[in-house]
Amino acid sequence: MGICGGQGNKRLTKLNLEQTKDQTGTTSNNENPGSSKQSKFVKQLTDFKVDPSIFVTLKKGDLLKNYKIDQVLGEGTYGKVNLVTQKATGLQRAMKIDQEGQNSN
Q1: What is the mean predicted confidence (pLDDT) over 49-56?
Q2: Residue 83, Cβ neighbours under 10 Å: how many?
Q3: Which InterPro entries match (predicted)?
Q4: Which string of DSSP letters, residue by residue, matches 18-77?
Q5: For the chain, first and last CA: distance in Å?
Q6: Binding-site residues, please?
């Protein structure tokens, strides 16, 4: 468990205050109004719902039979989180492989 200091919210609020969106979808920086540097934001809407059916339960055995490991998304003291592709369906998932699982080849 950790302590959340809320630093991310402060940063996001500051970003929102520094940039305004005009009608064309480009952003301009309020700190430097004469700047010609503009970027375009794309809004993506998804119909994603968290439901127990989207989770895969713990399985033991050779995961390479069912999954192709694509890349490491993150790692910590107790293991790694990898982007994997389920061979049967082609679905991409995030899979946590704990330290015990990494050492039992």
Answers
A1: 80
A2: 14
A3: Kinase-like_dom_sf (IPR011009), Protein_kinase_ATP_BS (IPR017441)
A4: HEEE-TTSEEEETT-TT----EE-----------GGG------S-GGGTEEEEEEEEEET
A5: 30
A6: 96
Find the length of the chain: 105
pLDDT tens by residue, 3-43:
444 444 444 444 444 444 444 444 444 455 555 566 677 77
The residues facing 92 across adjacent strands are: 85
* Helices marked H in the chain: 7-18, 99-103
- How many Cβ atoms are within 10 Å of 84's Cβ, its own excluded? 21
- Domains, the chain, ranges and CATH? 1-45 (no CATH), 46-105 (3.30.200)
Is the separation of the CB atoms in 81 and 93 below 8 Å? no
How does pLDDT run across 56-84, given as a tens digit for each residue? 777 777 888 989 999 999 999 989 999 99
